[in-house]
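Our consortium's second objective concerns turning raw sequence data into structural hypotheses that experimental partners can test. To show how far this objective has progressed, the report includes one record in full. It was chosen at random from the queue rather than selected for favorable results. The single chain below, 285 residues long, was entered without modification.
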Amino acid sequence: MTTAPANLLAVRQLLLDTIRGLDPAAVGIVGDPAHRGGYHTGSDRVVANDYSVVESPRDSAGLTLHASALDVGTFSVRSGGATHDLRTFSTWCVAQCRANTADSRDLREIIYSPDGKVVRRWDRLGKRSTGDDSHLWHTHFSFFRDCTKAGRDQTPLFRRYLTGIGLLEDTDMTPEEHVWLETVHKNLTVLDGRNPVGQIYTRMAMGEDHTDPDFVVPHPTLKSLGTQLASLQTALTALANKDLTDESAIVTGVLAGLTPEKIAAAIPPTIARQVADELAKRLVA
């Protein structure tokens, strides 16, 4: 009996939990009892030369009782200042498949309508391009059967869409991981000794995070930098208080370079007699 695999049920639940107004009856995996052939059926309902089995080794090798398709019906939501609906959702998913994003590579095909007027079909194998008119109001996703057999998580693509339009938070972390990250961040930003992490970082900055008293830290620390700054401040203070002008040394230096003739020539005539008399007195004494 054809069954819905857990990984596609997870996608279905994600969409129903996140998109308000999406009718659960419009999000289906297993075809009705009369359905024969195609990705909505498992091994008990496929037909001879079924395209969902024979066209890809990924399908033939992955055939089980699981259906491997998902239908999504119409919806419309406002988020982030824009309206998002089945058409924008479908064209976004097709764009991801065409870009061969890592989270879209298990999709075989998408049958959709970009405008509600024409039906388009994106086929990874390039074998089909059309679909019936029922796809004007619902979008069909076919998944390679090997991914449903393996149970690979198919929510990342849809989660990325819901995050991009603002219906989900941008995170892949669990609530427990959120708490852990917030705690680490808080501890790393408090480095003044108010908590254990802060105390450790303070000791490291001071160069005291070792137990050997004879150990010499090979790199600058707050303590060594503080000592150097104190020495520099002392030297600058002493220099600022020092009289850098030594007048006697300047006079001695100037006189050492003058001859008697130059000294005499430098004395104004009005005081030359006074200088001569003073010099005579000193010579007599």
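The partners drew two points from this record. The radius of gyration is 44 Å. The chain has a mean pLDDT of 86. Both points have been shared with the crystallography group to help prioritize constructs.
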